[in-house]
Design a protein that fits this description.
By secondary structure, this protein is of the alpha/beta class. It is 31% helix and 25% strand. It is built from 28 helices and 39 strands. The strands form six sheets. Strands 14, 15, 16, 17, 18, 19, 20, 21, 22, 23 and 24 form an eleven-stranded mixed sheet that branches. It is globular. The N and C termini lie far apart (88 Å).
Length: 879
C-alpha cells in the first residue's frame, strides 16, 4: 500500500481572490484534525491582484502549505496541478472564496477509513451563504439524511454537482477535463461516482458556499450566450459514456441532465436567444433531444421539480396526457405512468377587493388537466346549482416560477353585488365532469391563507374552507343589520387579527369610516419625477381633496417646496404616512413597485391591511415603457389600476401585450413633459447617455452596487464606447464643427467613469441631472431617455455594441423591446465606426433627421401640452 505524508490534501485554485483567500485558509487552520496531517496546496492561477502575496504569507509560516504559480489556465488546469502535487491519502477541493466547518477534515477522514473499499467519493453538507449571511441547504439533503453509503442507482436524484467532495488519492486517479469551460466539476464528480455507482455522505461536516458578487458564478459563465455549445457537449459526453442496458443514458445521467435543465428553465437559461432563424431551431432541437432521452419516471420522481414544471418537461417531450374520471377526483396518465391524481382544481386569487358594494375577484385556475384539455370555470351565487360559466383567457401567470411560459393557467375576473349575494363558490368542469375548487390567495387580496374574514361597510365577508369531498371552498356574505351583530363580527375579526399582527389591530382602530378624499403623490427616494410635478400642479386646487407628497426629507429636494407645501409633505414609512396610506383614495406614483409607495412591508400589507385600503393606484410612469417586461407590468400581475400614457404606441402596447383595457389608460402624457422646453434653441452639444448592464456589475449591497472592473474593462460595451470617445474622427468632427460631446453614464455605472481616459478636450464626462433641451442630438442604446428627445423633436442615434448579448438576455432583465430599435427614431449602430458614420451624416445635414425618422417622431405623441392639467381633470372627473 502506498505511503502518504499527509492524511488529507486540500486543493485550492486561486484567481484574484485577495479579499477572501485569508478566511478560506483560516478555516483550514481551525480544523479539529491535526493540522500537521493536512496538506494545503494553493494554485495561483495567474492572479493579477495581491492573492499570491496573501498565499505566500501563510506558506512562510506553515511548511505544509505549498504554492504553485502558473499562468492563467482556468480552474480545471489549476485543480489538476494540485492533484499531481497531492501527498495526502485523500484529496479535498475548496474554492478560494469559500470555507469549511472545523470538523470537516476529521469527519471525512474518519468516514473514509471506515468505508474505504465501498466508495471512491464522499460528499458532505453544502451550505449556501448569501451577502446577508443567511444560510440555506441544498435540496439533496432531503435524500442524504444521515451519514452512510448510498447506492446511486437507487438514489438517482442525489445529483452531486458541487465540489464539496473528497476523493481517494490513487494511481488510476481522475483529472478534470480542461476542454470543458463549464460543468467540468460535474463531469469529474460523475466519473468518480460511476466507478462504483455509490456515494458516501458525512452529515457532521459543512462546506460554506458564499454567494457574493465576485463569485465566478455571477460572471455570466453559465449563460447560454457563453456556454450553450459547452452545455450540449457536456450532456452528449454524459450520455455517450454512461449508458444503460438499452443503449440510452443511465438514469443517474438522466437525473443529472434534468437537474441542470430544471434550474435553467426557471432562470430562462436554456436557449441561446441571440441566435436567429435556422440556428435557433437547431439549438432548440439539441435541447429537446436530451429532454426526450429522460424517462417519464425520472421526471415524475424528481424532488427538485415543481409539479407543474414536471408537466412542462413532459409536454416538451411531446407527451400527451390521458385523463380518467372518478366521482370526486381525476387522474392524468401516459402509458404506464400516473402523472397526477387530483381531488380538486386550484383557484389562485391574485386580487380580491370591495369597491362600492361590489366584491371583485381576479385570479387563475391552476390544474394539470388544462395542460391537455379544455377546462371551464363556473361561479355559483346563493343556491344556484347550475352556475355561471366564466370567460377565461391564457393567464400571464403561466410563466410559473420562471421567466418563460411553462404552463397553461386560465385567467378570469368576476364580481358580485354584496347586497344580492349570500354565498359564492366555484367549480371546474373537465369534459363535462364537475370538480370542486380549493382557494389559494396571493397578490393583492383581502384574504390570505391565515386571514379569512373582514368587514366592509355593513357586510361581514368570510371565506370558508372545504370540509369534505362534497363541500366547496366558498365565500359567505352577511348583512350586519343591528349593532349587536356588528359588535360580534368586530370581536371575531379583532381576535383573528390580534393573532396575526398586534400592530395591525392598532392601525384598524384609527382608520376613518368615511375619510375625505386624500391623494398621495410618490416618487422614488431622492428622485424628482412625475409625481412631484403633478403635486405642484394640483396642490392649490380648491376641490375638497387633501394632497400629500411622500418624501425622504432629502435636503436638496426640500428646497423645491413652498412653505405652504412643506406642511403637506409626509416622510416615507412614518406613522403619519401609514395612517394617510390606509385612508387615501388615490396614489399617484412614478414607480409601480409596492415597496416604493407602501409604508408597510409587502407581505404585511397584503396579509393585514388588504381589506382596509381603498385607493386607486395611478401609475404615472417614469419613462415610456418600451422594453418587454410582461412579468412586471402585466395588468394581471401588477397592482396598477390606471396608467398614464403619452403615445399611440403605448395604447396599443398596453392593450395588446400587457392585458389592459383602453379605459385603464389615461392619455394625458407624463406630467414632467410640461417642463420640457420644446421651443428652446439647443447649444452646440451632443449627449451620449447609455444604459447600464447587469452582467458588468455586482449585486446591490449596503446601498451600493459591487463593482466588477475586470468584467467591465474586458467587455465590448466598454471597449467600443472608449474607442468612440477617443476616436480621432470624433475629435476632428467636434473640432471642425465647434461641438462638445457630454458623456453621461447611467447612475449605476458612474463609478466606472474613472476607467475612461478621455484624450479629446471636447468630450466631457458628466454626472447628476441634465437639461436635455440644451442638446442638439442624443446617442443612447435602449434607454427610455430616448423618448424625451423624440418629444423635443431632436435627432437620436442608437448605439448597442453588445447587441447580441442583449438579445440573449445577458445584459439586462429583458431581451426584447416592444418597440424594436430597427423601428426607432434614428439609425441603429453596433460599433464605433458605424456610429461615427451616422454621426457625420447628421452633422453634415445640420442635425436634420432622415424623413422616415422625422415622420415617426411627428406621429408618436398623442398630445404635447398641458399634461398636468389634463391628468388632473381626468382624475377629478372619474373620482
Amino acid at each position: 500500500m502506498q505511503n502518504f505524508k499527509f492524511d488529507v490534501s486540500v486543493v485550492i485554485p486561486v484567481y484574484n481572490q485577495e479579499d477572501h483567500i485569508r478566511q478560506c485558509i483560516k478555516s483550514l487552520l481551525r480544523q479539529t484534525h491535526p493540522f500537521s496531517k493536512i496538506q494545503i496546496i494553493l494554485i495561483n492561477d495567474g492572479s493579477e491582484d495581491n492573492s499570491e502575496i496573501q498565499c505566500n504569507a501563510f506558506a512562510k509560516k506553515h511548511t505544509n502549505i505549498e504554492i504553485i504559480s502558473q499562468t492563467n489556465q482556468g480552474v480545471s488546469a489549476a485543480r489538476n496541478a494540485g492533484i499531481k502535487k497531492a501527498k495526502g491519502k485523500y484529496i479535498m477541493f475548496v474554492d478560494a472564496d469559500d470555507e469549511i466547518s472545523e470538523t470537516t477534515v476529521e469527519a471525512l477522514f474518519d468516514f473514509y477509513e471506515e468505508h474505504f473499499d465501498e466508495v471512491d467519493l464522499v460528499t458532505y453538507n453544502l451550505v449556501y451563504v448569501n451577502e446577508k449571511n443567511e444560510k440555506s441547504k441544498h435540496g439533496r439533503y432531503n435524500i442524504l439524511r444521515s451519514s452512510g453509503v448510498y447506492d446511486m442507482d437507487e438514489n438517482i436524484h442525489i445529483v452531486q454537482t458541487t465540489m464539496n467532495i473528497c476523493v481517494k488519492n490513487i494511481e488510476n486517479t481522475i483529472y478534470f477535463d480542461t476542454s470543458l469551460s463549464m460543468a467540468e466539476d460535474q463531469f469529474y464528480i460523475t466519473e468518480w461516482i460511476m466507478r462504483k455507482h455509490k456515494i458516501g455522505y458525512v452529515d457532521n461536516a459543512d462546506y460554506f458556499y458564499y454567494r457574493h458578487s465576485a463569485a465566478s458564478s455571477s460572471s455570466g459563465n453559465l449563460h447560454p450566450y457563453n456556454c450553450f455549445d459547452q452545455m450540449i457537449y457536456f450532456f452528449d459526453g454524459l450520455c455517450e459514456k454512461y449508458k444503460d442496458h438499452t443503449g440510452g443514458p443511465s438514469r443517474v445521467v438522466q437525473a443529472l441532465i434534468l437537474y441542470n435543465l430544471n434550474w435553467r428553465l426557471k432562470s430562462d437559461l436554456i436557449y441561446p436567444h441571440h441566435l436567429q432563424g435556422e440556428e435557433m431551431e437547431e439549438a432548440k432541437e439539441k435541447v429537446l433531444t436530451h429532454i426526450r432521452r429522460i424517462d417519464d419516471l425520472v421526471i415524475l420522481s424528481s424532488p427538485y421539480l415543481d409539479k407543474f414544471h414536471k408537466f412542462c418537461f413532459l409536454k416538451l417531450k411531446g407527451k400527451e396526457g390521458k385523463i380518467y374520471f372518478a366521482p370526486h377526483r381525476f387522474a392524468l396518465c401516459s402509458g404506464d405512468y400516473l402523472w397526477a391524481d387530483e381531488p380538486y382544481c386550484e383557484i389562485v386569487f391574485t386580487k380580491t377587493y370591495v369597491k362600492d358594494t361590489k366584491f371583485i375577484l381576479e385570479g387563475f385556475l391552476k390544474t394539470p388537466a388544462a395542460e391537455f384539455y379544455d377546462v371551464d370555470i363556473f361561479a355559483h351565487k346563493n343556491n344556484d346549482k347550475r352556475g355561471e360559466k366564466l370567460s377565461t383567457v391564457h393567464s400571464f401567470y403561466s410563466t410559473y416560477k420562471a421567466s418563460v411560459t411553462t404552463n397553461n393557467f386560465l385567467h378570469f375576473q368576476y364580481e358580485v353585488d354584496l347586497s344580492e349575494t349570500r354565498r359564492l363558490y366555484f367549480h371546474a368542469e373537465i369534459c363535462g365532469h364537475k370538480y370542486k375548487t380549493k382557494f389559494h390567495f396571493a397578490g393583492i387580496s383581502c384574504f390570505m391563507q391565515n386571514k379569512t374574514s373582514f368587514i366592509f361597510g355593513d357586510y361581514f365577508v368570510e371565506m370558508s374552507k372545504t370540509l369534505n369531498d362534497v363541500n366547496f371552498d366558498n365565500f359567505e356574505f352577511t348583512r350586519l343589520s343591528n349593532k349587536r351583530e356588528i359588535i360580534c363580527a368586530k370581536k371575531a375579526i379583532f381576535k383573528e387579527h390580534f393573532t396575526l399582527s398586534k400592530g395591525g389591530v392598532v392601525y384598524r382602530s384609527i382608520i376613518k369610516k368615511k375619510p375625505k378624499p386624500i391623494w398621495l403623490y410618490v416618487d422614488r427616494h431622492s428622485v424628482i419625477d412625475n409625481a412631484f410635478y403633478q403635486f405642484k400642479n394640483d396642490f392649490n386646487k380648491n376641490d375638497g381633496v387633501t394632497r400629500y407628497y411622500v418624501t425622504d426629507n432629502d435636503d436638496e429636494k426640500m428646497k423645491l417646496f413652498t412653505k405652504k407645501e412643506k406642511k403637506f409633505l409626509v416622510e416615507f414609512g412614518t406613522l403619519r404616512h401609514k395612517v394617510l396610506f390606509l385612508n387615501c383614495s388615490k396614489i399617484l406614483t412614478s414607480f409601480h413597485s409596492i415597496s416604493v409607495y407602501s409604508p408597510f412591508p409587502t407581505v404585511g400589507l397584503l396579509a393585514y391591511y388588504g381589506d382596509l385600503t381603498h385607493y386607486e393606484l395611478v401609475y404615472l410612469q417614469h419613462g415610456i415603457l418600451h422594453a418587454s417586461l410582461v412579468n412586471l407590468y402585466a395588468k394581471e400581475r401588477s397592482t396598477i389600476d390606471k396608467v398614464v400614457v403619452s403615445s399611440h404606441f403605448e395604447i396599443e402596447n398596453f392593450v395588446k401585450n400587457y392585458g389592459y383595457k383602453k379605459e385603464d389608460l389615461i392619455t394625458s402624457g407624463m406630467p414632467r413633459y410640461d417642463y420640457q422646453k420644446v421651443e428652446s434653441v439647443p447649444e452646440k452639444r451632443i449627449l451620449f447617455s447609455p444604459s447600464w448592464r447587469r452582467n458588468l456589475i455586482g449585486n446591490f449591497v449596503d446601498n451600493r452596487r459591487i463593482l466588477t472592473p475586470n468584467s467591465f474593462l474586458n467587455s465590448p460595451f466598454y471597449k467600443q464606447i472608449n474607442e468612440f470617445l477617443n476616436s480621432p474622427r470624433l475629435e476632428k468632427l467636434l473640432e471642425e464643427n465647434d461641438l462638445t460631446l457630454d458623456f453621461k453614464n447611467h447612475p449605476i455605472f458612474e463609478e466606472y467613469n474613472e476607467h475612461y481616459e478621455i484624450k479629446n478636450s471636447r468630450v466631457n464626462i458628466i454626472s447628476g441631472s441634465i437639461e436635455m433641451d440644451k442638446y442638439k442630438l442624443m446617442i443612447t442604446d435602449y434607454s427610455s431617455i430616448v423618448f424625451d428627445f423624440v418629444y423635443l423633436q431632436r435627432p437620436v442615434l442608437y448605439f448597442v455594441p453588445d447587441y447580441e448579448m442583449f438579445l440573449s438576455g445577458l445584459t439586462h432583465s429583458y431581451r426584447e423591446l416592444d418597440l424594436p430599435l430597427e423601428e426607432g427614431f434614428g439609425a441603429f449602430t453596433q460599433n464605433a465606426d458605424e456610429l461615427l458614420n451616422e454621426l457625420e451624416k447628421l452633422v453634415e445635414h445640420n442635425f436634420a433627421p432622415e424623413e422616415k425618422y422625422q415622420k415617426r417622431m411627428d406621429n408618436f405623441f398623442i398630445t404635447k401640452e398641458n399634461h398636468c392639467e389634463k391628468l388632473y381633470n381626468h382624475l377629478i372627473e372619474n373620482s
